[in-house]
Amino acid sequence: MSQIISPLAGKPAPASILADIPALLSAYADLRPDASVAAQRVAFGTSGHRGSSLDRSFNAWHILAISQAICDYRTSQGIDGPLFIGVDTHALSQPAFENALEVLAANGVETMIASGGEFTPTPAISHAIVAYNRGRATGLADGIVITPSHNPPDNGGFKYNAINGGPAGTDITAWVQNRANALIEAGLKGVERMPYAQARAASCVHEHDYLNTYVADLANIVDFDLIRGAGVHMGVDPLGGAGVRYWPAIAERYRLDLTVVSDAVDPRFAFMTADWDGKIRMDPSSNYAMQRLIGLKDQYDVAFACDPDHDRHGVVTRSGGLMEPNHYLSVLIDYLFQHRPHWDARAAVGKTVVSTALIDRVVERLGRRLFEVPVGFKWFSDGLLDGSLGFGCEESAGASLLRRDGTAWSTDKDGLVPALLSAEITARRGQDPGEAYAQLTDELGKPFASRVDAAATPAQKAKLSKLSPAQLRTDRLAGAAIEQVLSAAPGNGEAIGGIKVVAADGWFAARPSGTEAIYKIYAESFKSEDHLRRLLQEAQQIVDAALE
């Protein structure tokens, strides 16, 4: 049940595993998907359409079709405001941007591109949509982010953000996905397109200064006066991502003691250390991928990193090295709801069903309401927009929150703000977030958590995604009575695409993978590592029995 760790894990990436960028770009332009092959069709997961040009799953035809489908969707819904678009630093992002702009301009969409061809983080796009739509009832904006997030260098990704600024819901993505696949099946008949040079010069295409607009507004969500006054010495590793030029601008504007440890941008991401499986993956929550910054931890009061589109964060402390995402999120929630007096007293805390139960304990102590939802940040967007959620987070180091005055900031994940808040916590508390976590667990209990993968056939995965509580054949988990069996999230009643089983001192959840022949088991114990191992073993037995 345990992952097999590659001998390359945590070591500098050897030349043998680096992406062949010319081959990748040639495949993007030259290879066409076969709509009769499921793996080559447009498929929107929790974070848009992703794939690799080498596998015919992310090619020019995909992007042309998706872009036209988005234009058609906008027309069907009467969305006629500007579309904000941004790209990250993956090799496939730039050609995908060019193809998207060819279609958007041909359809007459008012399109806002980054000034000077600047890379654009996901939160800067969401922030722009929210800011533009504030106070408007008509002419609303939406957006596109071209990124596969922290996925390997040979991957591409294409996300659509709705008029609420957040990731489009499944009703929207299903519409776009189906329309895009129909266009591919029709040989792109129905796709309006003009040459890139003509599109770039079109009257409906405008440059927008995402960088300075976003950076100038950060003072409304982070207390820079406090950080600067305390003299917090910070380090940041952009991991070669879209925020690489945002960090120096933040340091300069707010006069911070902030060192950018590397400003390298390389589509091969050759500066990375390999992840657990020997692949390059720019994951700021992975100890293996974060070796460069972890090695510098004693040089800073607190340090942090973000993934290529800067919608995820990783915090490195002197006291404990790289923090587990769930650990830092617990500390951050505990801190924010005690130091944001202008937030509505009714504002809830949002978390996904596989996030730590330590958050539940923090929320209960704060006297706040917990809003627990399936995996997918889209479930938080409306609450972050109307202020009914003060904070929303996923266990994979994705979060966003309200401005200091209690109004909306970004309704998609923002990696930069939680990273900067680690310095605010350090400044106010006189202890780094790792030390704050140790104190928090002394008060509320220490969780032991893990995630493992188990083999599953397509039929078993389909059955697991529809598993009901009645199908479980036991009433006990690791020696304790089962208190809850969930197939729908308590916060919004939406299906979690699997099952979650809760007992007094621990829980597990099982979900099928969307891309691999496995299911994922998440487990957490508040007793011990031995108890956690027992939870994981019994979890697999319980699920396997239910799948027979």
Automatic annotation (TrEMBL):
Entry similarity comment: Belongs to the phosphohexose mutase family.
InterPro entries: A-D-PHexomutase_a/b/a-I, A-D-PHexomutase_a/b/a-I/II/III, A-D-PHexomutase_a/b/a-II, A-D-PHexomutase_a/b/a-III, A-D-PHexomutase_C, A-D-PHexomutase_C_sf, A-D-PHexomutase_CS, PGM_a-D-Glc-sp
Domain Alpha-D-phosphohexomutase C-terminal: 479-538
Domain of life according to the entry: Bacteria
Keyword annotations: Isomerase, Magnesium, Metal-binding, Phosphoprotein
Protein known as: Phosphoglucomutase
Protein EC: 5.4.2.2
Keyword Phosphoprotein on entry: yes
Domain Alpha-D-phosphohexomutase alpha/beta/alpha: 42-182, 213-320, 325-441
CDD domains named in the record: PGM_like3 (cd05801)
Principal EC category: isomerase
Molecular function terms from GO: magnesium ion binding; phosphoglucomutase activity; phosphopentomutase activity
